[in-house]
Amino acid sequence: AADEALAGLFRNFYPESEAQTSEDFARAAREAVGPSQTLSPAAVQGYFLRHKDSPEAALEHVKDLRSSAF
Question: What is the pTM of this model?
Answer without folding.
Answer: 0.86
